[in-house]
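Second attempt. The first submission of ArsA-related P-loop ATPase had a stray character pasted in from the spreadsheet, which I only caught after the job came back as garbage. Lesson logged: always re-copy from the clean sequence file. Corrected sequence (352 aa) follows.
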Amino acid sequence: MPTDAPAPDWSRVQLHVVTGKGGTGKSTVAAALALALASTGKNVLLCEVEGRQGIARMFDVDPLPYEERQIAKGLPAGAGTPTASGAPRGAAGTVYALHIDAESALLDYLAMYYRLGRAGRALDRFGVIEFATTIAPGVRDVLLTGKVFEAAKPGRRGKGARQYDAVVLDAPPTGRITQFLNVSDELAGLAKVGPVKAQADTMMTLFRSERTAVHFVTVLEEMPVQETADGIADLRRTQLPVGGVVVNLTRPDELDGDDLAEVTAGASEASGIAADLAAAGVDGTEEERAALAEHLLSEGRDHAERKALEDAQRRLVAQYDVPTYELPRLAGGVDLGGLYELAAHLRRQGMA
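This time the job returned cleanly.
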């Protein structure tokens, strides 16, 4: 369950990095967070760096080019509804999206710092760009995070450069997030001086500041919960800022406390359930109601077992000493309407 501690003031955070083990819904949560932030009147840039065009699929738009595109508006503002910081809500903001690939980022870098416009594109035709971004993973991460850093930097300059109130990064999975963000240390063995190293050091001033928060997405299963704990420990060890934990895909409580305790203790009997079905006017023969009762009792036992396992993992998450939020499993799957629904949950819990 969400923690009872006072909600942090995320309004001061400019860069929200969202990570999580594969299959936990990391990209979905990043998209929902961008919509939730836009609902407070912020203009938000949602970035992805893994080359999967996940943003385009979630928002049902054409594949994104290497440029910032408007993809959605924030939730309608609630009249008089306060934000987490207590300020009144204004008009909804806009969500923009950016698909970042290392090759395009390197061309951008060469044009920006070395003024290699046409020459850079010539290198790309000869395969030099692909070679450079493949041979040195540390350089690749600098290029990817560098584009995010430029988008989050106040006072951006250049043709068509927008100012964003917040940037949400759909980041690599938990197992790689520390390496991905800790670009200065990753480059230590590759470049001790020069513009790439200087850029990495400058980026670390943002990544290690209170203007950045790294949020973890998990589900209530043993492996993702343990990987989240390991990821939080890694970030703290490298002095990178831990944000919150979003527990995704939670199931509703199908049984109240008394019924759950009765099923768990094995005190429920199919005959009693069959009698209740008959009293409720459920059609069918006595044998059919008995079979249905057995099926319901089996489902109840499965639910109780699953609930016990999830509660055990939830208690572990509560020990992380970080703000915790929960998002439900949506029965119809996640489409654009589902993203808005999840965004509303995050907003109500104070994450935006």
